[in-house]
């Protein structure tokens, strides 16, 4: 009888662990919504339709508030109320508006199909309850000025000096976005022990995985640059670039998210991948990933009409 009772107690104790060992699959998404379409005079319905097409479990929204007019390198403070609450209500999601002001935020929000528990100290992320697991999601919108691809290519954007070398671009990128990433790494400590951590956002800086020698030979980029922000995410913080895990060759699959408002051949602009989905978890695998946008071949999932000047990045992961 004692042995039977002990076996029953052991089984009861082990059952939750066995349940936790079952893999979890999530769809995640990062989307700069350009004021919910307001900056292009579009209804919020179009933004909702894009999110519904992906059907994410967690989605980070950037620029939930409209830009001022004019919005330039010297002055672009968000105006008006956030559309995150309205979007979440239409989708039946929980939401969190990032209300603080710091170098890593610009009118962002995090929406989740499951309950959001609490925000991090600097407002960059939230804890989320997902199928008995604790998941953290961070939404970052990093400074867009000075913008080093434009500096390297001689494209005017505010009073920024022209750059000629990879080292110069790296130094300028560190100065522009280093303080924001320092702040993020402080908040990231709150995710210690979490089952999974995701980082989404408009980084306003390309990835070192994209500006490679192979991309230069393919005519995708002007030179190879080991961009510092993406390197800190992958090398220092241990995150996987979910899109690049699925598509490791930037020459074959560039995944441009900036911009939908000009053609790739436009000499006054440069198309790039600056919107990211990163993930970190034990046994994390990428089931699929892709770009969501207004037309093929730039987008893997096409949604029309399209409300934003950015394309979205999405991934399905298992951990």
Automatic annotation (TrEMBL):
Provide the leader sequence positions. 1-21
Endonuclease/exonuclease/phosphatase domain location, by residue? 29-310
**Keywords annotated in UniProt:** Endonuclease, Hydrolase, Nuclease, Signal
Output the InterPro entries linked to this UniProt entry.
Answer: Endo/exonu/phosph_ase_sf, Endo/exonuclease/phosphatase
Under Gene Ontology molecular function, one entry of this record is: hydrolase activity
**Stored SUPFAM superfamilies:** DNase I-like (SSF56219)
What is the name of the protein in this document? Endonuclease/exonuclease/phosphatase family metal-dependent hydrolase
Species whose genome carries this gene? Ancylobacter polymorphus
Its lineage opens with: Bacteria, Pseudomonadati, Pseudomonadota, Alphaproteobacteria, Hyphomicrobiales
């Amino acid at each position: 009888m004692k042995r039977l009772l002990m076996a029953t107690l052991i089984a009861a104790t082990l059952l939750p662990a066995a349940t936790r060992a079952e893999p979890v699959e999530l769809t995640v998404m990062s989307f700069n919504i350009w004021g919910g379409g307001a900056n292009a005079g579009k209804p919020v319905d179009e933004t909702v339709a894009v999110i519904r097409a992906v059907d994410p479990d967690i989605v980070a929204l950037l620029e939930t508030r409209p830009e001022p007019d004019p919005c330039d390198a010297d002055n672009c403070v968000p105006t008006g109320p956030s559309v995150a609450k309205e979007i979440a209500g239409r989708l039946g999601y929980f939401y969190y508006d990032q209300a603080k002001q710091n170098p890593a935020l610009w009118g962002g929000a995090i929406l989740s199909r499951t309950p959001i528990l609490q925000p991090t100290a600097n407002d960059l992320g939230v804890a989320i309850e997902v199928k008995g697991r604790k998941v953290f999601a961070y939404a970052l919108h990093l400074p867009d000025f000075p913008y080093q691809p434009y500096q390297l290519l001689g494209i005017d954007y505010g009073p920024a000096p022209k750059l000629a070398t990879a080292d110069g671009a790296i130094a300028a990128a560190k100065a522009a976005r280093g303080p924001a990433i320092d702040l993020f790494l402080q908040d990231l400590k709150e995710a210690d022990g979490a089952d999974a951590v995701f980082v989404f956002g408009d980084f306003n800086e390309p990835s070192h995985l994209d500006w490679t020698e192979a991309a230069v030979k393919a005519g995708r980029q002007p030179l190879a640059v080991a961009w510092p922000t993406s390197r800190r995410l992958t090398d220092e913080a241990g995150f996987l670039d979910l899109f690049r895990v699925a598509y490791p060759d930037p020459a074959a699959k560039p995944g441009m998210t900036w911009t939908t408002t000009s053609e790739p051949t436009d000499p006054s602009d440069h198309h790039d991948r600056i919107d990211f989905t990163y993930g970190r978890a034990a046994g994390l695998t990428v089931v699929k990933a892709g770009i969501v946008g207004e037309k093929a071949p730039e987008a893997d999932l096409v949604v029309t009409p399209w409300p934003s000047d950015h394309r979205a990045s999405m991934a399905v992961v298992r951990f």
